[in-house]
Amino acid sequence: MTLPSVEVSGVVKTFGEGTANEVRALRGVDLEVESGSFVIIVGMNGSGKSTLLNAVAGSFPIDRGRIRLAGRDVTRWPEHRRAQLVGRVFQNPFSGTAPDLSIAENLALAARRGRRRGLGFALGKARRAELADRVRGLGMGLEDRLDNPIGTLSGGQRQGLTLLMATWRRPELLLLDEHTAALDPKSGDQVIRLSCRAIEGGRLTTMMVTHSMQQAATLGDRLIMMVQGRVHHDISGSEKRRLRPEDLLDRFEEVRRSERLDTASAEVLRRDYV
Amino acid sequence: MALLLGALSIGLILSLLAMGVFISFRVFSFPDITTDGSVTTGAAIAAVLLVDGVSPLWATLAGALGGAAAGAATGVLHSRFKINRLLAGILVMTALYSINLRIMGKSNVPLLSAQTLATQAEAVGTRWLGQTELEIAGFAVTTRDLSVLLVIFGLVVSVAGLLLMFLRTQLGTAMRATGNNEQMIRAQGVNVGNMQIGGIALANGLVGLAGALLAQYQGFADVQMGIGMVVWGLASVIIGEALVGTTDIGLVITGAVMGSVLFRLLVAIALRAGLNPTDLKLVTAVFVFVALVLPGVLARLRARRPAASPLDAEGGR
């Protein structure tokens, strides 16, 4: 029995509480992720999947509940402190890298993720050699362009580098938030291949949000479907392995029908009683 | 010739201010108005200490530290109390006006009889050359002007070198990334607020240093001397960017120094040609306005023609 790497218990988050734009993004999420597990998270728009990832990463304080990472209660840790334990790749390829800094400088920053930064030079000789080596591993031909500003690269290249940055120091938890959604299919596939290699090679505990049914069905060893701010389905083991994209679409259709039913019946109730 | 040396000296002193403005405006994308107050704070602290007979080196350093403290205050107002960047700078700048008056005790502190870096440079220069006046390329030059210029030049070069080295350290790189992409640097475990406080303190430390040197160069500190300085610094940075036209920080810092000197020279020439000093700040502001707007206008003009490059549309950021 492996210890849970991530423990989310009773997490509630409402944005804009008490205003007209109130959004109850998370309505009591309970989730345990075992160490080394690769969890896929799916759900419709507004179901709270990205919010869940951001809550774990600490992008905002949660209203209720607890979050533990690697056995430590991080509920009150600010985002930058949780970065000691968490590596992230965002949906927007522009989010994970500093565009005016060179490839080498971005990676040098990632090499000290969550550590103290002092007055040593960011790019020593040894560091440069290591950089070139690991960038070559991406297979994107970027090893000769280490001094180019990252802003000059394509979205796929930037996501590849962001992935490398997130996993440069082994993270206790890797968070991938629809990180191929903004890419063309070919670079998307490439980034997915790199992700799988990093995850399998490092036995990284991973939570990955995706909109792609193909990715959801074929990747990972566990699948979670979020509906209206709660965990609705939790599939793992042999059931996950047998899962096909069509099955997922069926389940989505089910959820959609029940939701429409919900709103329809609410409408009836409102009409009759209010 | 004296005019040229004077313009060079002031241009070099103010290039330290330009470096400060470069850090806040460009590295941190933080439009920091504290500058107008902190340059006077640096001058005031240095002047008062010099009058008290403190050694010029320590007095200058204290002036820089005073500026840094003012910058840290602006950084804290923004990052801890979530006050808008411009407003945080305006609040500190306004408060500094009173603080500067308190430091000086009056609105103007003359340094006529005090020992300053300028008088020290003159003494050393006179000892080396053995005369108070010499001829360069057919022009009569006082030893004072020349030795002051050389000392300032050496100082500016070393400060620029140290700044460049700092920006390439782990900490300095993290600061540059903070101004570039806060989300990214937070995900790398960096406290954005601390970086901003440190960065704006560093920027205003350089501004305070410029103020301390300026007071010693012109022989007095005045409570009004900071007015419009931030625009002056911005003009220098913009000219520098036009001169070097790259994003390499080493070149951009060099550009800011060159921009400051060039701008001061242009001003000296314009004043000599009959520009009324009263209009100087108006002209400076108009210049910065044009420099900020021009790239966008040019890009739009070029965009009407087919072969347009999207890189031209960068504008003033």
What would your notes on this structure say?
The complex is a heterodimer of chains A (274) and B (317). With 274 residues, chain A is of the alpha/beta class. Chain A is built from nine helices and ten strands. Chain A has helices at residues 49-57, 79-82, 103-110, 125-136, 155-168, 185-202, 213-218, 237-242, 245-273; strands spanning 4-15, 23-34, 38-43, 64-69, 72-73, 86-89, 173-177, 206-209, 222-227, 230-236. In chain A, the strands form two sheets. A six-stranded mixed β-sheet of chain A has the order 6-7-8-3-9-10, with helices on both faces. Chain A has a four-stranded antiparallel β-sheet with strand order 2-1-4-5, covered by helices on one side. In chain A, strand 7, helix 6 and strand 8 (206-209) form a beta-alpha-beta unit. The mean pLDDT of chain A is 90. With 317 residues, chain B is mostly helical. Chain B has twelve helices and four strands, in the order H-H-H-H-E-H-E-E-H-H-H-H-E-H-H-H. Chain B has helices at 2-27, 35-51, 56-79, 85-104, 117-129, 143-167, 170-180, 182-187, 192-218, 229-244, 249-272, 280-304, and strands spanning 108-110, 133-136, 139-142, 220-222. In chain B, the strands form two sheets. Chain B has a two-stranded antiparallel sheet with strand order 1-4. In chain B, strands 2-3 form a two-stranded antiparallel sheet. In chain B, a hairpin with a 2-residue loop joins strand 2 and strand 3 (139-142). In chain B, helix 1 runs antiparallel to helix 9 (192-218), helix 5 packs across helix 6 and helix 10 packs parallel to helix 12. The A-B interface holds A 57, 78-81, 83-84, 86-88, 90, 94-101, 105-106, 108-110, 112-115, 117-123, 149, 165-166 and B 165-166, 168-174, 176-177, 180-181, 183-192, 247.
Itemize the secondary structure elements and their pairings.
The complex is a heterodimer of chains A (about 270) and B (about 325).
Chain A: E1 4-15, E2 23-34, E3 38-43, H1 49-57, E4 64-69, E5 72-73, H2 79-82, E6 86-89, H3 103-110, H4 125-136, H5 155-168, E7 173-177, H6 185-202, E8 206-209, H7 213-218, E9 222-227, E10 230-236, H8 237-242, H9 245-273
Parallel strand pairs in A: 3-8, 3-9, 6-7, 7-8
Antiparallel strand pairs in A: 1-2, 1-4, 4-5, 9-10
Chain B: H1 2-27, H2 35-51, H3 56-79, H4 85-104, E1 108-110, H5 117-129, E2 133-136, E3 139-142, H6 143-167, H7 170-180, H8 182-187, H9 192-218, E4 220-222, H10 229-244, H11 249-272, H12 280-304
Antiparallel strand pairs in B: 1-4, 2-3
